[in-house]
Amino acid sequence: MSSSREPLSAGVWGVLATPLSADGSAVDTESLARQVQHYARIGATGLTVLGVFGEAARLTPDERRTVVETVVAADPQLPLVVGVSALETDAACAEADNVLDLVDGRLAGLMVQVASPDPAELARQLTTVADRTGQGIVVQDYPIMSGVSIAARDLVDAVRRVHAVTAVKSESSPSPPAVAELVAGVEVPVFGGLGGTCLLDELAVGAAGAMTGFSVPEGLLACVAAYRSGGFGAARDVWRDYLPLVNFEFQQGIALGLRKHSLVLRGLIRHDAVRPPARAIPPRILELLAEHLRSTPGDVLEGAAASGREG
């Protein structure tokens, strides 16, 4: 099994949703492939599969293999970050081993959750996963999902002890101070998440880009490109037109359902089914989502639908 421990490339790593059948019982592989091809078409740096947005914790091991196999087949080039949901080391390694044979030569890193607030213990966990799988590690700090909160200085300490780390995904709110401290303290790229809610400020304090599941990733790409070419002012001018939708999508408890419905409206997936414990979204809120999409720059409805038909 080949391994890459090179730092992740800067840019936008799209986080894939896992499309499901209308009743939520099976992975919709055709829709997943269409989503992958759209990311490739618009110029994503790479893809993140089996993340929180991909509902990985709600998939069976066989479904996880189906997801990874579909993503690998849908595009032959984009590098992949593969998420691991389990916090316990043995379970995390088992999750990784379940899919590693499918991504040989394509894997940029396993995304592993922060599982301890103690930097020495976290470093031991990350080192063990890296050694047992033979892979580089993208460290995900997302306390709302993991239930584990770690101080930024302690995360810096842990990351500096683990030579296999290829990037950090910082999703500890407020994220700009955390990203700033991480960027100053570690030698690997730091990416923001949280639906892009703080993307502009994360870039301003040194983030290498975005790794998140916003349903209009064209906006993430435009913002990052504008920051690279024109700095804060140029990126702000681009990003402010996407912010109403970014803010609308990032509603606790219904964010995933909103994003999936947005992908349906865009013609990228067929159904917006989300597995329990997802909450039902009132019809008026779904209507409002469509209004936000119609007000977003570009032809995000018509253009995506057309590209989906072509793919």
TrEMBL record:
<dbReference type="InterPro" id="IPR002220">
    <property type="entry name" value="DapA-like"/>
</dbReference>
<protein>
    <submittedName>
        <fullName>Dihydrodipicolinate synthase family protein</fullName>
    </submittedName>
</protein>
<keyword id="KW-0456">Lyase</keyword>
<dbReference type="InterPro" id="IPR013785">
    <property type="entry name" value="Aldolase_TIM"/>
</dbReference>
<comment type="similarity">
    <text>Belongs to the DapA family.</text>
</comment>
<dbReference type="Pfam" id="PF00701">
    <property type="entry name" value="DHDPS"/>
</dbReference>
